[in-house]
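Components:
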Amino acid sequence: MAVDVRAGVVRRAWDTDLAYSFRNSPVAVISAIVTLVLILGSLFAPWVAPHNPFDLSTISLIDAFDPPQWIEGGSPDFPLGTDEQGRDVLSAILFGGRISLGVGLFSTIFAVVLGVTAGLIAGWRGGVIDAFIMRVADVQLSFPAILVALLIDGIVRSTLPHDEQDQIAMLVLVGSIGLSGWVQFARLVRGSTLVERNKEYVQAARVIGVHPIRIVVTHVLPNVLTPVLVVATIYFAFAIITEATLSFLGVGVPPTEPSLGTLIRVGNGYLFSGEWWITVFPAVTLAALVLSVNLLGDWVRDALNPRLQ
Amino acid sequence: MLAFILRRIFQAAVVLVAVASIAGLLFPYVGDPIGCLLGQDARPDQIRELRGALGLDRPFYVQFWHFLSNAVQGEFGLSLRQGAKVSRLIGERLPATLELSFVAAILALGAGIPMGVYAALRRGSFLSQLFMTLSLLGVSLPVFLIGILLILVFSVTLGWFPSFGRGQTVDLGWWTSGLLTRDGWHHIVLPALTLAIFQLTLILRLVRSEMLEVLRTDYIKFARARGLTNRAVHFGHALKNTLVPVITITGVQVGSIIAFAVITETVFQWPGMGLMFIQAVSYADIPVMSAYLVLVALFFVIISLVVDLLYYLVDPRLRMQRGGGGHGR
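Structure:
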C-alpha cells in the first residue's frame, strides 16, 4: 500500500509540466547531472576522495608537484597530480568544493531570509518603514555587490584581533555575501506583497480577526515565494562566484581550509613554472559548477514563467 | 529639464554625504592602526605620543568633523601603513585604473554592439551561435578565472603578452600614461580584455534581444515597405531604438567595471587603485579604504548623472514631454 502511494507520487511528479519540460531540455538535464555529481562528490568527500588533504600524516613533500596520472612522471595514486605540499589535487578539489558549496548555500539562505523579511515588512507596513528600507536598498544597489561584500568583510576583519579571525572567517564570509545580496530579494518580495495585500483572501483573513503576523507568514508568504526561488537559484551561483573571488583575493576563507577559490589562488603562483594542473583543475571545477547552476536557474525561470508557455 | 537635473544633483549629493559619513564613522572604531604601525613591543609613552600625533585621542565627533572637512578638500589623512598622504597615493594610482577601465569600456562597447547586431541579423548562422555560446561563458565565469585562463593561454603557452604590471609609462607631470608607449599597450591588452569580457557579453546579449524585438515591430515593416535599403532599416531605424536600454545597462556596467577592476588589478598586478584597496583591506588601512570608498561613490554618482542626461539626447520622447505637457514623470 505504502509503496503504491509512493509510486503514485513519483508518477504524478513525472507527469507534471515541469518534469516534461525538464525531460525535453538536454541543457537542463546535463547541467542537473553535473551539479548533482559535484554536490554529491563534495558532500561525501571524506569517503569518495582518494586522500585526506588535511591529514598531515598522509601527505609527504616527496610527492610534491607530481603531474596528472596520464603525463610522464605522474602516478595513479594522484589522478590529477599533487600541489606544492604533496596534497592530491583531486581530493583537495572535493574537499574545497564542500566549502565553496557550503558558503554559497548558507549565504544564499541568509540573503533570502533577510531580503524576504525586509520585503514583507516594507510591503505590508508601507509608509515610513517602507520608504526607509527601500532607500537603503537603492543606495546599496548602486554599488556592485562584490564591492559591498569586500567592504563588509574588510571592515569586520579589521575590528577583530588577528587570532580570532580565522575561526570565524567563514561566518564573516557568509554574513558579508548575504548582506550584499538581500536587496534583490527585498525588492522582489515587496512588489508582490503590495499586490497580495489587497487581495480578497487577505481581506477575508483580516475580517475574521487573524493576527497580522499570522496573515503575513501563513497566507502572504507562500504566495510571493515562487519568484524568490528562481532568483535564489541564480543567486546561489553568484554567491559561489563571490566566495571564490574573495578567497582568490586573499580575504575569504583561511588557507587552512581551502575552498576552490583558495586552491586557484595558491596554484596561480605556479602557473609560470609549468605546474598548470594545480590551478587549472580547481578552475575547471568551479567553472563547471557555476555554469551548470546558472543554466539550471535559467531553465527554472523559463519553465515557471507562464508567459513563455 | 533644469529642475530634473537639479533634483538629480541633489540626490547625488545625498548619496555622497551618506557614504562619506559611513566612511568617517569607521575611523574611530575600526582597526588598531597603532598596533600596526609600532608593532607589539611599543612602549606606552610611544603609543600615547603617536595617538596624539594622529589625532586619535580626540573625541569621536571632533575626529568625524575633521574627516568630513578634509574629505571635501580631497584630503584623507595619512596612510596608516605607508605613512604617505592618501591623496598623493591615490593621485599616483588613479591614472592606471582610469586608463584600464577606459580601454576596457571602449572594447566592450566597440565589440559588443556590432557582435550583438550581427547575432540578431544573422540569427542561426554559425558565427552568431558561436557568439552566443561564448557569451554564456563570459556571463557565468568569475572575472579572476577569465584572467587566469588568458594568462595561461597568451602569456605562459604562447608568450604573446606580458602578464603583470603596466610596462613603460610616460610621465606627463600630473598623469602617468601607459597609452603612449608600445610597451604600455602591450601590457594593457590582457587586463583590459579580462575586464571587458563580462560587460561585452552583457551588451552583446542585450543588443541582440532588443534588436530582435525591434525588428518585429510595425514601423520596421513600414520602413521596408517604403523600399528603404536593409542598411538604412537596420542601422538608421532599428539600432537607434535599441540604444536606450543599452545606455542604461552600460551606465550600470561602468560602475561594475570599477568593482571588477579590483579583481583584474590583483590578477595582473596592475598598479591601480583596486590593488591599493585590496592591500588596504588586508592591512586594515582605514584612511585608504575610506578614501577609495568616497572616490568610488563619486564615480558612480557622476556616471548615473551622465546616463540620465544621455537619455535626453537619445530619446526624443523625453524632450517632447517638456513642451507638450503630456505625461510628465
